[in-house]
Amino acid sequence: MVPVYNEEKILRQFFDRTFAVLHKMNIDYEIIAVNDGSVDSSESVIREYASKYPYNLKGVLLKYNVGQHKAIVAGFSVAEGKYVMTIDADLQNPPEEIPRLFAAIEEGYDGIGTYRKDRDDSFLRLLASKIVNVAVSLFYGGFHIQDFGCMLRIFTKNVTDDICLLHGEPCFIPVEAMAFIRKYREIPSSHSERVAGK
Length: 198
Hints:
single chain; alpha/beta; four-stranded mixed β-sheet; 7 helices; 18% strand; globular
């Protein structure tokens, strides 16, 4: 499940790499691309790949921008698989990490999160992320999550269905998921610099 907002410069590369990874895994899968009101040609790219891969790509086309987390919930609402994974289109979390998350949740977890190791970000961005992680953890009752900002995650379908039932404000996937997860684990993930777009 990938939220898309003005990613025309990188979206084809994201799809090509992600389809290559999933094809090698030899599993049944679907990619749900949620166009979050993009004003560039992201929707056209989603339509292009949906026509190439009609059985493996669903496009959810939102009329206007609702924000990353609400876009993800829109994707959750149409997901059909046993597990639902979230990943950003910017390729900072490489699609090549997908098999590791899949293997980890198969060990009996309700959710697997990732934390970005060796982050390729500026000092100020790293500092801001650290402050947010501590503040969110304290505000929401001390959840022990290392990286609230990393959207490379996988959940059982039961968890994402329960998130869809909330329909509340604010919408913050890592926290809402923890309300329904009994067994959770975080694993390290590689992190790359964004190669295009912003």
